[in-house]
Design goal:
Number of domains: 2
Order of helices and strands: HEHEHEHEHEHHHHHHEEHHEEEHEEEH
Strand content: 15-25%
CATH class of the largest domain: Mainly Alpha
Shape: globular
CATH topology of the largest domain: Arc Repressor Mutant, subunit A
Largest sheet: 8 strands, mixed
Distance between the termini: 29 Å
Number of helices: 15
Length: 403
């Protein structure tokens, strides 16, 4: 196992605290592996095996445990006598009313509890009733570029940095893909399976969706328009032009379900002058760029928007709230805010024409405050400063700890 320092350093301080530790994220992003890392840490701390119990509810082994009462009885039967029990529940959203069982564990047992789930709905609704103030949540993402390089060093012969970055764009960051030298076709077969299991288990089955073809049309539109502003009404009108009727409310519902399954991430627009979040014409980004290529196929003209996707996800990993900036009709790719800090980012694959440079740098120069500003590029000339704007290769930015 490659140690995922970013998450372990956040979770470890909460071992043996009176909080349920909840790990959420898209399927196959590494949540189960992090649970295994936590169990290994307990063993290193001399916790006996009989005090550690774990379940993976994606496994047929536990398919009969499908309600809170069954889960309660099962766990109660395995508690360590007279000692604290460490309980690990993987993909717990498969259990109806799991919150009730976990609440009972908190109240009745001497237990330290860790759960994972692949649906954001597990962070709302009943959990607010049963676990308010008694849980901490950790969002897990597919591999960052830095983590990807760690995997490549362990399992392959990595190439030069920028060559590896081009591979990262195509292959994405699902950990399973980095433990072997897959061809692009093989990799997309794996990612398509992740996509299908998410769509049909976490969305279609759980929400009892009958018109699966409608959902797939919404998916393909959003995947094809990564980094483009649109609304549910925009998408509805587009489908109508294709002789496919779908009202905006239905479109909006499907977009929400894709967000709940962590396939999509909504990025709102932010008025830089007015300092307010705008509620129309948002952008959507994917949990991992490989999802797009696995579903639609890989094309070179997708690279530019995929760069946006990768930078957006990296900013989320680092704890930023991320917005699309609007300034007097111009667009800033990202305004990233964290506490009192703010950064502005423009992204382009390369600058080959003067007008492209004027647009990318000019939009940032028109912002009057003194927060850091970046233009991120893919060409070898990326580097240096222009009137206070830092220019970096996207790969170098992703590996930097200075922003």
């Amino acid at each position: 196992m490659i140690y995922r320092k970013l998450y372990m350093e956040k979770i470890l301080p909460f071992i043996d605290t009176p909080f349920v530790k909840i790990l959420t994220g898209v399927r196959r992003c590494g949540k189960s592996t992090i649970l295994n890392m936590l169990k290994e840490k307990l063993r290193e701390n001399k916790i006996p095996e009989e005090q550690i119990i774990s379940y993976n509810f994606d496994s047929l082994e536990y398919e009969d445990i499908d309600t809170a009462s069954k889960l309660y009885r099962e766990v109660k039967s395995r508690l360590a006598k007279g000692k604290k029990t460490y309980i690990f529940l993987d993909e717990v959203q498969e259990i109806d009313n799991w919150e009730k069982a976990v609440n009972s564990f908190m109240v009745e047992f001497d237990a330290d509890i860790y759960v994972t789930g692949s649906n954001s709905r597990m962070m709302s609704g009943e959990i607010s009733t049963y676990l308010t103030g008694r849980y901490v949540s950790f969002r897990i993402y597919p591999l960052s570029f830095e983590e990807y390089l760690d995997f490549r060093k362990e399992y392959a012969q990595p190439a030069e940095l920028y060559t590896e970055f081009k591979r990262y764009i195509r292959m994405g960051g699902f950990p399973a893909l980095q433990q072997k030298e897959y061809t692009q076709e093989e990799a997309y077969t794996v990612v398509k399976d992740i996509y299908n299991s998410t769509i049909f288990t976490d969305i279609v089955k759980r929400n009892q969706i009958r018109k699966v073809d409608q959902l797939e049309r919404v998916v393909k539109y959003t995947f094809d328009n990564v980094g483009q502003t649109f609304s549910a009404l925009t998408l509805s009108k587009y489908l109508k032009s294709q002789n496919r009727q779908m009202d905006p409310e239905t479109v909006y519902s499907y977009l929400n379900k894709l967000e709940n399954a962590y396939i999509l991430h909504r990025c709102s627009r932010y008025d830089i002058k007015g300092k307010e979040i705008l509620k129309t014409q948002e952008k959507f980004y994917l949990a991992d760029s490989a999802l797009r290529f696995a579903v639609l196929g890989y094309h070179e003209d997708m690279v530019s928007s995929s760069l946006e996707n990768i930078v957006y996800m990296e900013l989320l990993r680092r704890g930023y709230d991320v917005y699309v900036g609007r300034l007097d009709g111009a667009e800033i790719d990202f305004v990233a805010v964290q506490k009192d800090e703010k950064i502005y980012i423009q992204i382009c694959e390369r600058i080959e024409r003067e007008e492209t440079g004027r647009r990318e740098y000019g939009n940032l120069l028109s912002i009057s405050d003194n927060y850091p500003k970046y233009v991120l590029r893919m060409d070898e000339m990326a580097g240096g400063n222009y009137e206070g704007i830092k220019t970096m290769h996207v790969a170098d930015f992703l590996l930097s700890n200075q922003y």
